[in-house]
Amino acid sequence: MKQLSLLIILACTTLIVSAQEATNQTDAKKRKQGPWIEQVESIRGEPGFSWEGVYKNDRKEGIWKKYTINGDLLAEETFKNGTLDGLCKYFYPDGKISAIGMMVATDIEGQKDTIMVIDPVTQEEKLTEVTRKGNSVRQGEWRIYDEEGVMLKETYERGELSNSVMGNRRPANAAPLPHEQGAGKKKRTDY
After folding, report:
1. CA distance 176 to 108
2. Which ranges of the chain does DSSP label H, i.e. alpha helix?
């Protein structure tokens, strides 16, 4: 009995300590590190939202979740080196999935290149270093659902649409898709 009580106390202490982990921290070089929550205000008629995820050396890393101002999940996107690269899921305001697929990074944020630049006045050529912005494109099969659950399958090859097939509603007795499974998630049965 003492061991069980000790185990429960240890588990509760671990939960409290992990819940108190600091967010929005920077290191000595002023780079964002660890768990982070960002608020994006409304602009030009677009509603505001919040981001939640982890930074590693000032770059988004792993799964980032995007929420409405009301706290409804809008998206789960996977980042590597600050650029979308991996599974992405997008949701309707009612929680139903609107799209799911893979993104692949074509340029990594902060990657350096050297290019030849010609001065327009003197016509002198000189090497100039440029820093790339992160860029990602769709890759592989994407499933896009309308609000009634009708699916469109699109296949991409490094951002270029190569195939598009309109699907039907999934039967109510069909096995759930991998993104529909998981602890604490309500399974969608209205396909």
Report:
1. 34
2. 2-19
Residue located via tokens 């440029």: 130
For the beta carbon of residue 106, count every other beta carbon within 10 angstroms. 15
Q: Is 25 helix (H, G, I), strand (E, B) or coil?
A: strand
CA atoms lying within 13 Å on the CB side of residue 41: 2
One-letter amino acid at 90 equals Y
In a domain, 37, yes or no: yes
Residue 108: give the domain boundaries: 30-167
CB 68 within 8 A of CB 47: yes
Name the phi and psi angles at 122, rounded to 5.
-95, -10
- Per-residue pLDDT tens listing for the chain (191 residues): 555 444 454 444 444 444 456 899 999 999 999 999 999 999 999 999 999 999 999 999 999 999 999 999 999 999 999 999 999 999 998 899 999 999 999 887 777 888 889 999 999 999 888 888 888 999 999 999 998 888 999 999 999 999 888 876 544 545 555 555 554 444 444 44
Q: What pTM does this model have?
A: 0.68
Question: In residues, how long is the chain?
Answer: 191
Total structural domains within the chain: 1
Residue 180 lies in a domain: no
How many beta carbons lie within 10 A of that of residue 86, not counting itself?
Answer: 16
**CATH code of the domain covering residue 145:** 2.20.110
Q: Which residues pair with 85 in a beta bridge?
A: none
